[in-house]
Amino acid sequence: MLLLRHANAGERLSSPSIDRFRQLDHAGRTDARQLVWSLAGKEIDRIVTSPLARCVETVIPLAESRGLVVERRDALLPDAPLEATLTLLAELPDAALLCTHREVILQLFSGEVTCEEGGAWVLERVDADWMPAAYLPPPSSVTEAFPRTASVR
Asked: What CATH superfamily is the domain 2-12+20-145?
């Protein structure tokens, strides 16, 4: 399973009711498009996301490239009860991708793991629990790690 934090959406807005509508910024839209290639080798049969715009926008390019429907679930909202999120995780197949928020990731793993915007955790099922196995940085940080070199004429 892949647990993805939504891509960059700029600064939080003044109140939670307004912040719900915050969309991806330019860098976030770029990362969302690059997820198509950075996750190309990962098996993904379902894409489930928080219904907030920044999460939905993060997974749309990936869903479109794979012909998958984006499923919106309140159990992935920033203020979702932990029990609701755990119930959702338990019902999903191993080849699912979930897009959510920092608050949910911190709550799931008791603050022991962090995740950059646009980054993802590969989770492995251990008995009935999901454990973080590997971290996949945001596509933009991988691109920045390998800067373009001058072309040869």
From this structure: Phosphoglycerate mutase-like (3.40.50.1240)
